[in-house]
Amino acid sequence: MTQERLWQVLDPPWGDLHALLALLCSSAAAVGLLRWLGRRQVQQKMDEARRSRHLALERMEKAARRLKQENPGTQSSQILSLTMVELAEKLKEGSLSPESVLYSYMDKALEVNQEVNCVTDFIHGCEDQLQELKKQKEKGLLYGIPISIKDHINCKGHISSGGMVKFLGQVKEVDSIIVQVLKHQGGIPFVKTNIPQTMINYDCSNLIFGQTLNPLNPQKSPGGSSGGEGALIAGGGSILGMGSDVGGSIRLPSSFCGLCGLKPTGNRISKQGVVGALMGMQSVTGVLGPMARDVDSLALCMKALLCQEMFQLDPTVPPIPFNDQQLGPSSCRVLRRDGYFQPSPSMIRAVQLTRQLLQDAGHTLAPFAPPKIDYMVDELFTRGIFSDGAAHLVDCFKGDMVDPNLKSQYNTYRLPALLKRILAIILKPIYPRIARDLGALCGVG
Ligand SMILES: CCCCCCCC/C=C\CCCCCCCC(=O)NCC(=O)O
């Protein structure tokens, strides 16, 4: 009776329940088919990107072989053992040729990549650049230095994937400003390196290019998000790399891989020409910066980057050159613990040793305790980077698959704000920190 009345009200054109069921089933099948097609499209794009990488690495192998044949008698192991400052000097005085240095690093990078999966592309224009260098009237500060570039920093003729399917196939038509300046200073960008999907992560894995391992211990992560850089430089396949950092993406992989990394002050280096998942946030500034084996290399790189070329190409960068003076004895603050994360015994020991070394080198040291650490982390940092409630970040996953390493993070980001707030209230007595994270993930407004 009720069913009959329902049919009367609905006045179904199909006539009976079977037709309704058939419609429901076929709708479900259509949805399933569309999803399957969508996933297949994503899979095809990822396969295509992997094929391109494979071809690029084959091309790199051939180029290295050719350069080797053209420069017989080069002592690659000797070149690879030089510090960046020593290498720069030898290149400048002409006792080493940019060709021999480039192919030594290309060879080594290919070897390291086999072990830890850190290279995503070969910047084939580096061969033309060897010729360009010969035309430059003055030898720049990075003359002939091979440089690795994090995936998301645009290089002409290459994609910047950000570890996301949505950026695949978008070949960049111009170099980012940082790459233009590196080239202006004689540097030779030669490979691009792996990152985690979206780069908002401290590991280094994405579904397109896979997981990067730590060359010091392949059971471990190199850290992220500039993890491909960390792994390649620590493995000896690059002497200088360009990374980026919002909340640790240069500092963490540098630390995990036993390297030096610098997160410069916001807007010190132009960010024009990079892709990312967190665009436009103003309160927490993302920056590009160098990673290398020692501090002198970072200083040389910063000196090279902070030049007229950079200030002219991007007038929003304050035209303040590198200040050599500050490399002398200085007054430093030592952060023994930040009051938020528990340091491991090895970290405590490392800080103590560094403190001693700095003191012995004549620096004046004083303790430093960051004020209001909980407020800084939760309210200024987390709420700052997710000021839109992580909406833009969640949007980046549309038409993509989520890397298993990011699943729990992603699922948390996409909870409705009301649910995040309710969960925060429930979890507050047991897990106050997670509760504060959830509150901060609601964003502002
Ligand atoms: C049960 C799961 C709970 C998940 C809670 C998630 C809370 C997330 C809070 C903060 C995460 C912040 C991650 C920031 C990573 C930043 C890395 C970075 O610097 N990337 C920028 C870059 O590469 O340029």
Automatic annotation (TrEMBL):
Source species, domain of life: Eukaryota
Q: What's the gene?
A: LOC102073344
GO MF assignments: amidase activity; fatty acid amide hydrolase activity
The Swiss-Prot or TrEMBL record describes its family as follows:
Belongs to the amidase family.
Swiss-Prot/TrEMBL GO biological process terms = fatty acid catabolic process
Q: A Pfam family matched by this chain, by name? A: Amidase
Give residue ranges for domain Amidase.
Answer: 101-411
Q: Which SUPFAM superfamilies match?
A: Amidase signature (AS) enzymes
Question: PANTHER family, from UniProt?
Answer: FATTY ACID AMIDE HYDROLASE, FATTY ACID AMIDE HYDROLASE-RELATED
Organism of origin: Zonotrichia albicollis (White-throated sparrow)
Which keywords are on file for this protein?
Hydrolase, Lipid degradation, Lipid metabolism, Membrane, Phosphoprotein, Transmembrane, Transmembrane helix
Coiled-coil-forming residues are none
Name assigned to this protein? Fatty-acid amide hydrolase 1
What EC number is given for this enzyme? 3.5.1.99
Q: Write out the catalysed reaction.
A: N-(15Z-tetracosenoyl)-ethanolamine + H2O = (15Z)-tetracosenoate + ethanolamine; N-(5Z,8Z,11Z,14Z-eicosatetraenoyl)-ethanolamine + H2O = ethanolamine + (5Z,8Z,11Z,14Z)-eicosatetraenoate; (8Z,11Z,14Z)-eicosatrienamide + H2O = (8Z,11Z,14Z)-eicosatrienoate + NH4(+); 1-O-methyl-(5Z,8Z,11Z,14Z)-eicosatetraenoate + H2O = methanol + (5Z,8Z,11Z,14Z)-eicosatetraenoate + H(+)
Membrane spanning residue stretches: 17-37
PROSITE patterns for the chain: AMIDASES
- Which residues belong to the signal peptide in this entry? none
